[in-house]
């Protein structure tokens, strides 16, 4: 069993900032890539960003220069700093992680999601 604790979502005005965090715990031997996706009603879940164990990062073009992903490997936690937020960033943000269990089984797990609403 892998458990996620996501936090940091909320309501913010356009141009504002939010910081999301996601901690993973449970039956974990090691955590590989971690990342964030987002979804709005009626649309597919969209990749936002990912970060490897070594700190290599990838972003969807629409958030480059505004969002920054980071992680604390000792805490199995990933963060998403979101600046210059736009109306179109409104979505439920989901954390995910590629995890190898203590039984050496590798799988991808998802958090429960946190709502980010950008509105004036």
In whole angstroms, the N-to-C terminal distance is 40 Å
Helix/strand-derived class? mainly beta
What is the number of helical segments per DSSP (H or I, 4+ residues)?
Answer: 0
The residue-averaged pLDDT reads 97
Sequence of secondary-structure elements = EEEEEEEEEEE
Coarse morphology: elongated
Radius of gyration: 14 Å
Task: Give a quick account of the main beta sheet: strands, pairing sense, barrel closure.
Answer: 7 strands, mixed
Give me the count of strands.
Answer: 11
Q: What percent of residues are in strands? A: over 45%
Helix content: under 10%
- Low-pLDDT runs of 5+ residues are none
Note down, in words, how this protein is organized.
The protein is mainly β and 120 residues long. The protein is 0% helix and 57% strand. It has no helices and 11 strands. Strands 2, 4, 5, 6, 9, 10 and 11 form a 7-stranded mixed beta sheet that branches. Strand 9 and strand 10 (106-110) form a beta hairpin. The protein is elongated. The termini are far apart. The model has no long low-confidence stretch (mean pLDDT 97).
How are the SSEs placed, and which strands pair?
Blueprint: E1 2-7, E2 10-12, E3 18-26, E4 30-39, E5 46-51, E6 57-59, E7 67-72, E8 77-82, E9 91-100, E10 106-110, E11 114-118
Parallel strand pairs: 2-11
Antiparallel strand pairs: 1-3, 3-8, 4-5, 4-9, 5-6, 7-8, 9-10, 9-11
């Amino acid at each position: 069993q892998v458990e996620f604790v996501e936090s940091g979502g909320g309501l913010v005005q356009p141009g504002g900032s939010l910081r999301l965090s996601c901690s993973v715990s449970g039956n974990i031997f090691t955590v590989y890539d971690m990342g964030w996706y987002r979804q709005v009603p009626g649309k597919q879940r969209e990749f936002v960003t990912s970060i490897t164990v070594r700190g290599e990062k990838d972003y969807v073009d629409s958030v480059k220069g505004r969002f920054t992903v980071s992680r604390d490997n000792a805490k199995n936690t990933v963060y998403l700093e979101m600046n210059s937020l736009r109306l179109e960033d409104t979505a439920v943000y989901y954390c995910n992680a590629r995890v190898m269990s203590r039984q050496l089984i590798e799988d991808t797990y998802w958090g429960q999601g946190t709502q980010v609403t950008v509105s004036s």
